[in-house]
């Protein structure tokens, strides 16, 4: 594993810093581009890492996975009456599609879908952002994980696009709570600050049939675990999901903070991070690292 | 394996005949709905089957896989300058998306994408429909596979929608040959008549890192094989690809003739057939059979 | 004129009550469908009317005309940097078009356009809804015109769709003020309660080269007047503007309260009202009355 | 009138040659940009002209008016079952809208609508392009009007986009004849070569309640005439119809050859020509000339 990480590191180093750090909110734009880390968490609990794998970063859309898993525990299949399971074929914040499909978002990993999931969690938890934070603390075994309030507030100040989506869904009766309240909680989830090691640990249950070693708990059933992985495989990388499947071939989820998580079912979970993004908003060096990884192990899920 | 097939058969029997046989051309609408078959071809060459697994049927869009594999052999990565690799998020014959994306179809498994691949094969082969037919004869080891000319002619007579897509791509300079000629060949490929057993054999190389036992040939490299499987996994079932990944979790490709092929990488290939379709055009009992299969084996790629 | 009105009345009577009273908010749905009135205000100030021409009704989108005229006085051509002048070719509340055209609404008479105009007025007036109310009081010479607060509040409670549009425009930097505040004022304008006679008087300046007799003021220049009429002619009746031009041939503006105003340039202004609407949201009997009118006078602007 | 034309000429001269001559087919791209002409035909038959008013040019989409008038004579209101009467709000050759509205084009002046009208004329006339040519010969009193076969053939060679639209409508059963045959005739109509004087004379009946002095015939009823003018007013200038109404305020129809016809109902017809086009495909100097004209006469239909 350590030599695999060294090979990946060597492959990817020339790409680190290429691309563009997310700049739609000031708080994110200040992150130093020249950073790169990977962490692997094997199903027997070992951690392997290289580079900036312990530097906390803004997990952003990776939080959609935790949000979904939390909702699945409470709602089960009822989720799929309010959110679809199909790739969107359009940018992650498309209004046209949401209008055409009458307020039912295509999947839980585009923004509209994540907002519906947040709305469902809002109906279950007094303070959903605390619930999600406590959940990832337990999953990662790291009690010091924080929400970056400056990031969360800044995202709220730039909420227009997400507010438009939430109100559109509300107009189709697919959104129950107050828009502003749900957005506040949603942005807090996005503003969770975690390292590659934290994330690799947190998601290991998805590589391990739903069982979390750290929590010694079955977080999801094996079948639900396959479902979450299937959703990540078809819809986890915005409008690049197909190309990611083609190049990398693993279920994964990216965030505009530069993180990407991926699952090697039955073996290990992985998290890469490098803040500079490609044109569709995925970590440029991060995606390349995962491509290098599957090339070196000569294996993908397909 | 035989007991697996019996279990699936029992699970699915109540669904056989539910749905609606494709009726956009008269030749297809006459097929008896109450038929169902499965064939499995293991990577060591054994065949297992049940039901109407030897009855030949119109493979329709399953031919897009053979068409693509043939083109990959000649064009390699140049294919992806003319066709995308992303799920479409829209019906298989959407014009709006094709217009918006300036004549570059989203992937090779929607009609527009398959037409571009056919156009590429037209530039390489004197009679591409014969080339494809000979290819599947070799892959399946069945020299008697035929093109149903009545079906092919009937599809040509109802070509308007496909002609519209081809001309639209031509207007964006993404289509080189004469539209009518390419359509003729394309419809001949769709009109190939094969059984579940033929198809399971023909695609076994996709479960076997690109190696065909029957032909004793490396049809594709292992990496290309994973690429084709990834494309099937994200885009193989029209606008139901995500839901198929969620329920079944295998790379697959369907056709309106009622066939669905699927790949269990490293182990076996499978073909199910039942002519009655669900609302998005996939075999209703066929998809249920594959879902039953992954439930019984407790495994999917995810 | 009186005999013209009698003829129209006879023509239209069988249609009164056909269609469906607006029911998206409770306050509007209670209006008795079987009402019908017309008032004509000639350029020399005479009023002719028949039926329920003195019954006040909710003017709804007709207020968009007053809103626009007010903004034109302050902003002049700067308006057209934020709003287009083209018919929309889509329903009045389309999000897809607004997204595609990056937050610039097609014209000031679809909802998104009227919201931008309201946003501009918000930047000029402390309480824009009072400014518009005072404006129509002067234009109509009726100091008792009121805003129906029950209607305004009910519309605010059902604001999701309009809020989604406003936030979407805000995300494209085409909306300056707080969304909720602008919506409040916008709904107050829609909730103005006026009769056919009030409205025919209020808009007479549009038939009279911009000169209001009642106010003895040039409200708009002759050129601006032609511009407002041109906008009404191409975009005044939602997605039925072309058909209204074809059948009626006069600049006009409708509201879901069942009112339609129309202009016979150089001669007179007219307002019809009948609450039951056709499928695109225009007064069924009202549009028929205007069609009857242009047939009887054998004249349209075309 | 002569002094009006001189004023317009002076206003517009600085703009002549600005913009870009149509270059989608070689035959049109060779036209010298620096040309400009206007001709007015008054309702009492007098002709006034200035500049290159006698130079024949390719009338292109202006032919859609003649095509429609011919079809109206044979089909009456049945036309409107196959074509709408609404502005499109999208470019003249949009496929997305045509798909969304199931093969019913928005109006007879976008390409798809004109193709449906051509298809209807194909069902009535042995050689529709000859029928249209003979019609304009009579309307203009000029027996030497020709179809430019080089232009017509070149357009046919570049037919892909129009073929795509025709086939799409055929797939919705809104197109009866063979696509290629209809396109041939359609392009012949577009390739008619006429001067400003020819066109001003030909369309004078639209300014004269349907009565053609030259033919001494009632070509259309007064009501039908108003209908054609209404359609031109709302849909005659592609995706600039609203802006043209706003700036000019007359029913008009443009062509990519650089011609624009316009109607001053009850008074006169006018044709301007200047080959260089603005970004949406209308003659830049031509539109400016008509704007100058309505400014000088201080009158528009609105």
Automatic annotation (TrEMBL), chains A, B, C, D:
Known Pfam families for this protein? Glutaminase (PF04960)
Give any single GO term for biological process.
L-glutamine catabolic process
Binding sites annotated in the UniProt record for substrate: 61, 111, 155, 162, 186, 238, 256
Q: What class of enzyme is it?
A: hydrolase
Q: Which reaction does it catalyse?
A: L-glutamine + H2O = L-glutamate + NH4(+)
Q: Which UniProt keywords apply?
A: Acetylation, Hydrolase
Gene3D superfamilies attached to this UniProt entry: DD-peptidase/beta-lactamase superfamily (3.40.710.10)
Please list the GO terms describing molecular function: glutaminase activity
Entry's EC annotation: 3.5.1.2
Looking up PANTHER family in the UniProt record yields:
GLUTAMINASE
Q: Extract the HAMAP family matched here.
A: Glutaminase
Instruction: State whether it acts alone or in a complex, and with which partners, per the record.
Output: Homotetramer.
Q: What family is this?
A: Belongs to the glutaminase family.
Q: What is this protein called?
A: Glutaminase
Q: What is the lineage of its organism?
A: Bacteria, Pseudomonadati, Pseudomonadota, Gammaproteobacteria, Alteromonadales
